[in-house]
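Entry 12.
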Amino acid sequence: MRVRQKAQFALVDRTASAVIEEVAQSPDHQLARVHALWGLTQLVRLGKVQGSVLMPFLTDTDPEIRAQACRLLGDIRWVKAGTELLPLLDDSEARIRFFAAEALGRMAEKSAVAPIIRMLEKNGDQDAYLRHAGCLALARIGLAERIIDLAKHPSRALRIAAVVTLRKLQHPSLALFLADEDEFIVTEAARAINDDLSVEEVLPQLGQMLAQSRFENEALIRRAINANLRVGTMQSMKLLIDFALDNKRDLSMRLEALMALSTWIHPSVVDRVDGRYRGKIERDPYEVRNTASASLTLLLKDPDYTIRIQAIRTCAKLGATAVTGAIVDAMTNDKNAEVRSAGLEALVTLDQIQAQTAIKTILAKEEEPVRVTALQQLKALSIDPSEIAVSLNNILTGGTSQEKQAALAALVNLPKESIVDQLSLMLDELLAGNVDEALQLDLLDVALNNGDESVLKKIEIFRKKYAELGMAANYIECMEGGDSRAGRGVLINNSAAQCLKCHAISGYGGVAGPPLDNVGARRDRLFLLQSLVEPSAHLAPWLRSGNCHLEK
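Predicted 3D structure (tokens):
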């Protein structure tokens, strides 16, 4: 290969066209002939010979030589070869048909449109390479009206090819194919209209597909939803709302429609479907709030609780204060705790005064998931600590572990002097051994940040209970709780810890220390804690440092 290539370039440098042409015509060695054709093409580019020198090879008996001739004539765009290339679109070799179509496209040979269409019809969408070559050639030729005529053609393969071609041309006639009887073609038309650079003038027609019920595949419906969001008219908004209201439609797509509606005022700068940058858009909030509020109120009564939750979140994102009463009603009467939790989160956004009243009630008598949400929302509200002190005490002493964690986190957001009593009570329980081990870290973290002298003294007493453990006494609260996935992330990714310099997991890492696979089954928690905070505590004897005294 390299020898032939060097010979090819050497002959081109010497402009030895006669020698090169002689090799190209010799039937003895196919690869030598291919290199000769490449050499002749180089000479054409240099202006030493005419492109017509390649045309006789279009009728060669060797299929590879015919294919190379097609390809090279297309590369140099030798338009005089256009009519000579047309018969090769019917060649028995697919490779030749491919290069012939590609070459005709590069030459923008208008007479090739009908033969290329015949080639695509004969291909029957079986060979993707041929379809690509044909569509690309038709797009380069650019006679869009001939492609549009294929919208009603009985051949499915030709209609698919037409969509692909018009997509390359970014032609608005793609909208015609949204009415096709074939679901795949309709979906491809939707992709062509919405994706990439898109065809913005026919986005409204794509958005109208939400009103049809013939096809409901996710790829199509997502793009129809996105088209309505991008168009941004009142009609588009109504299409989204009507789709979300129709409980006969796919649940996940109804949720997607509601999520898209929630971004109506400030849509994302990137496309919801393909992630392409679309630019900043800002819309009048009054229109969407005024139009959507009544429908969102209806959705709060939907049989599916996930729809009710998303409707509440959509109200909050849109700032639809007109729906506040319906949200309060849902918080009171809805049987699903997740819905009531979502209602409280929305109420914090829409009406903080009502939210404060609701939180006081929730902390006193609601069930656990909703109380946890209420505790998490305390940081966003200005509630008098005295008004919830009793509820907090009850949760800190008798709530579930999750509630206690949320309550401790909520204490940080209250004035320090107002939570001393609660902290003292909890620390007394800690010293008595009545605080869940998984909560000890949360409690001590809040207590240390509080800084009250009496609180700090109780922490000191707690530490002294474990003084014999040495340095581990300062971290004894880390024995329980935690997140194994987060811990694995520290092990593998934390550049400060650099665990894998010495230890290995799943066969990856260092060999200075023991592997950490299933280490929890081999060692107890205290051993692991001491190894973390005081690495030399359990170091193997041969790895310990020592002093050597050498005699003179």
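Annotation: The two ends are 72 Å apart (CA to CA). Residues 30-45 form the longest helix (16 residues).
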